[in-house]
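FAQ
Q: What does a multi-component entry look like?
A: The components come first, one per line:
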Amino acid sequence: MQLLRVAKNTFRESVRDRVLFNLIAFALLMIGSSLLVGQLAIGDLQKVITDIGLSAMRFIGVLIAIFIGIQLVYKEIERKTIYGLLAKPLRRSDLVLGKFFGLGTTLAVNTAVMLGGIVLSILFVKRGYAPQLAAAIPAAYLIFLELVVTTAIALMFSTISSPALSALLTLMIYVAGNFGENLRLLAASADSAPSRWLLTALFYVLPNLSNFSAISTAAHGTVAPASWLLAATAYAVVYCALLLSIAVLVFDRRDFK
Amino acid sequence: MRFDGLLPIVPLVLAVAAIGPVQHWLEHAAAPSVVEDEALYLSNGDAVKAMALGYDSLLADVYWMRAIQYFGGKVLSDQTILDQQSDRLPLLHPLVDVATTLDPQLIPAYRFGSYFIHDYGRPAEARALLEKGIRNNPDNPWLYQDLAFAEWQDGDCAHASQVYAAGAERPNAPSWMRSMSAAVLADCGQRSLAVQMLRTMYESTEDPRIRADIKRQLDVYQALDELDLLNAAVAFYAERIGPRPRSLAQVVRTILPRPQPGLPNLTLDRTGSPVDPNGVPYVYDADTGVVSADPSSMTLPRSEPRQH
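Then the predicted structure of the entire assembly, as tokens:
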């Protein structure tokens, strides 16, 4: 119950944040501009709209997840509101998890708004149905899962260090997470056993964000299969559980005196 | 109303009014750019893909649009580029290659990229691009059609026939593909077959720019047919009727007064002189008896694309 209250407050707080609106407006502008940019391409205009729209959704979503995610806990500490919160019958774990679910809800709403923008753009261009319309929905869901994992990374770091360092570390993990497939290939081609072992370990430890990459598939009008969505959901749940457990453990032991 | 409150509006209005003239001044004052950017900093598709951070598809679009702009910019800056025989668009293939590595399903890039790469100087790279497209999209019959056309243009009728046959096996392959396989072998080097192939390519695309270029090629073939007819008519006139005719209008009036079955239909201007598909009269040299196309209207190939 307390967890839900924290989540609700975090969602409200995020929605009131002007930065968030600016980012969403920018994303919608990018999606709208795809109508013009697409004119430069030869071939399917709806392919370009889907590419630009989903990429904008992902890019802006990552910025929100990182830069709001790292502030979630730190803001309470900096404003000293944490003392008031912890004085209430509120478990520390509820605070961390509530913050996570609150931002997750914000990201879900943002993703849905941007998806609406993409759908409207495609409908405007095609004046009817296009395969990209159906394909964009699961692709947007996978992007949302990626954003949730990124939020969990940012939140975990925000319980450990300062916002600047948290942002840097989250960004590094995010970039490394996009090289997941390359790590596996490198491991397969490594000569020595220790490097093979290290690269394989890195592949499993780092979040493999390419698991959530369906932009290209959607742009070509192919709907991501349900098995992919299920497996990606399971992966996101497991990875978030891992990161949030670390965050709760660290936050539980943190001394605010 | 307080004067102080209005004060900031003055510079604002002045600045807005000045933007246009200043920009105009700047455009005239700046030295024209003489250095053309002919560098492609990231030409390895695999490297770009590795650095794309999941934005592969978007980057593929960017590279593809850059390729179109590069091509369009070249054509706009040098109208004669379409008629030159040498390698004129060195960056086109690397740009399209990166785009298709980033997005292996980017069919328009394979199809139209190879079309222009072939047409403007690099046939081997055009064929390689289409082969890459077929490897990545083995069920797309249009890639087979385009590869067969490229092979045929390069004189490899046997291979073109094989590619057509392979394309005909694909699901959703148009029914005429199988007959094209036989026709390519039987009519190797025939102009009428080139026209037939170009028409199928014209029908298979809806892009106005590609259609315009194919139409340009179809016009060239039409002009070649009409020139053959007119040169034959002039020769016939000189041999059977009298001295060389004074004008083409005279030849048409005397020998080709009405359309003949199996022969191209000539279009005439008000004076009765035959005109090319662009509406420009054909040039007739009364001294030599040779009819040719006006170079300001269209440039014809020095020789047929392939004669085997």
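Q: Is there any commentary attached?
A: Sometimes. For this entry: The mean pLDDT of chain A is 85.
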